Structures are given as structure tokens and as C-alpha cells.
Amino acid sequence: MPSLDNHILMALTHYRQQISSHFQCPVLAYSGPIHPAVLSSYVAAIESVADQRSAVKANRAVLLSQQAANPSLQIEIPPEQMDGRICIVLATPGGVVEAVEKMVEVTRHHFSEVFFVVPTAAMSAGTIFCMSGDKIFMDYTSSLGPIDPQVPLSDGQLVPALGYIDKVNELIEKSAQGKLTDAEFMMLQRLDLATLRRYEQARDLSVSLLKQWLVKYKFKDWTAHRTNNPGQPVTLQEKEARAEQIAKDLSDNNRWHSHGRMIGINTLTTGLKLEIEDYSQDDQLRQNLRIYSELLAEHTERQQAVFMLHYT
User: Fold this and answer.
1) CA torsion sign, 184 to 187 to 193 to 194?
2) What is the mean pLDDT of the chain?
3) 214 CB contacts (<8 Å, ≥6 apart)?
4) According to DSSP H, which parts of the chain are helical?
5) Who has greater pLDDT, 2 or 283?
6) By residue range, what is the domain housing residue 288?
7) What InterPro entries is this protein classified in (predicted)?
8) Contact call for residues 116 and 90 (beta carbons, < 8 A)
9) 3-class SS of residue 260
10) Is 34's pLDDT higher than 90?
């Protein structure tokens, strides 16, 4: 039904424009798993948004000069946007952390300030992606997840790495205690050490990137303490220590127990002491984001697409 699809696209454009007006910057929505296969599409989307931003800025300057030259002219001037800012509306079950690293590099090449908005959930690699932002916006229904990286098997299926690592460590500990069963011993014998090392590297990369991005972007404006020693300057070592603790907490399988555990805004702000912008009380923004994300999910399903980028 092309007419229905056209109406959905028109509605998506309308709500994206409303969200763009609120954040005073262009908006790009990403829905779906994060995988190296999406990188070419993501690069094209970011470049397109950057080009559109430059065109809008140039057009606005022309219209302002025309209005200044002839104040009687009735000219519709587009709203001013914050220079160098982009808002990414993200909904993802997670994916491959190496793809996230490249997506961050591409985004930061074109934009100096990045806002992440999570109307529903950004899990695993999606959580790591959000940590590269200057601000993260959520409401009381939104969720991030443990940073349990997913790695592809030989058949292309993505599996969480920490579960394998935890199980191997458990078997090794039982072996040291002399409690290993014959069946468990056979499991260890069949273990592919190269695969295990790959899982460990994915875990270490996830933690390393999260710590790096938190300090560089999320904590860049954290200059003075607010609770302990209020008003005292925050040192680089203190930022690094806070980032390391957040990375440690989010990668602790013993704390979350499940790769799919949904971590809400209260746990993130009070338990992990991560600053989140809470838009729960902004009814208009909440409605726009909810409708926008639901329409995008419906359109993705109707198109039978693995992922969806919306930016024009």
C-alpha cells in the first residue's frame, strides 16, 4: 500500500522536524541492530545531514540579508540551529562494538556536539554509542543496557561475549578446586582458545571505548564538584576514575545477570551516578518522540528492513 507508506513518511518528517526544532539541530534516527554492514549507509546519512545543515545555514544567511535590505518583505526564515550539533534518536538491541567505534569517528568528523535521545531502549553496543554523546536524553520509560558486546559466530549470528567468558572462568575455578565434572572437562577440552580471546578483546574494547568517550565528551563540562567538596574543581584523574567505575559497573554480569537487562534512568543516575537529561515532564517532547519512534518501528517492519535510518 504505497499511499499508506507515503503517509507514514510524511508523519515521520513532521515529527522529526518538531524534534529538530526542540533541540535546535538536525535529527537523525537509527533503528535496528548495529553491524559493520550498516556502516556505508550510516556514513551516507551523516554526510547528507552535514550537507543539509550547511545548505540551511547558507540559505538562512541569504534570507536574513534580504530582510535587512528590505524590511517590508515577508520572508519565512528557518529557525537558527546550534552550529555543529546533531541529535541522534537511537533504538537498538545492540551489536558489534567495532562498528560503533567507526560510527562515532564518522559522526565526530562532522559534528562537534552530539545529543543522544533514547525514547525506548539502546542496549549493549547502543549503550556504548550513547556514551560518546555530550548529553543523553531519556524519560522514565527509556532504558540502556549492560555493555555486553556481541560477536558474530561463523554463521553470522550475534552472541553476547560476557556469558561465554563468565562460564569459562567458572569452569576454571571449579577445576582449581577439584570440582570439575567429566562433562565439564570435555567442554573445556573442546574450547576454541582463539574464539575465547576474541570475546575477551571485544569486552576489553567496549570498556576502553566507554571510558575514553565519557572523559572526552560526556564529562567535558564537568568542571566543579556538586556533592562531595562542592565547588571544588574536578581533576582529569577524577573524571577517569568515575568513567572507569561506570564502565566496570555496566560490564558486571554478576550485577545485571542478563544481557537483555533494561536499566532505567533512576538506576543510571543514582546507582551509577551517570548524568542523564530527563524529559519525563516535557509532555510535548515525550509525545513527539514516542509517536516518532513508534512510526519508525512500524515503517521498518512494513519495509521488512533489518535497520532504518531517517534523516530527510
Assistant:
1) negative
2) 88
3) 131, 239, 242, 243, 246, 247
4) 2-23, 39-69, 97-110, 125-130, 161-176, 182-189, 193-213, 236-250, 253-256, 265-266, 283-302
5) 283
6) 2-310
7) ClpP/crotonase-like_dom_sf, Pept_S49_ser-pept_pro
8) yes
9) coil
10) yes
Which amino acid, 188? L
- Residue 1 clears pLDDT 60, i.e. is over it: no
Return the C-alpha cell found at 291: 509517536
Return the amino acid letter for 37: A
For the four alpha carbons of 216, 242, 279 and 38, in that order, the dihedral sign comes to: positive
Q: What is the CB-side half-sphere exposure of residue 282 using CA atoms within 13 A?
A: 15
Q: How far apart are CA 234 and CA 248, in angstroms?
A: 21
The crossing angle, in degrees rounded to 10, of helices 193-213 and 97-110 is 30
**Does the structure show a pLDDT above 90 at 152?**
no
* DSSP helix/strand/coil, 144: strand
Q: Are 265 and 140 in contact (CB under 8 A)?
A: yes
Question: Which contiguous run of DSSP H or E holds residue 86?
Answer: strand 85-91
> How does residue 2 score in pLDDT terms, banded at 50, 70 and 90?
low
Q: Band of the pLDDT at 80, cuts 50, 70, 90?
A: low
- Residue corresponding to grid cell 524519560: 139
Single-letter amino acid, residue 12: L
| Residues in the chain, total | 312
Q: What is the C-alpha to C-alpha distance for residues 116 and 84, in angstroms, rounded to an integer?
A: 14
Note the pLDDT of residue 165: 74
Q: How many domains does the chain have?
A: 1
**Spatial separation of the C-alpha atoms in residues 311 and 307, rounded to whole Å:** 14
Q: Is 6 or 67 the better-scoring residue by pLDDT?
A: 6
- Tell me: pLDDT of 156 over 70: no
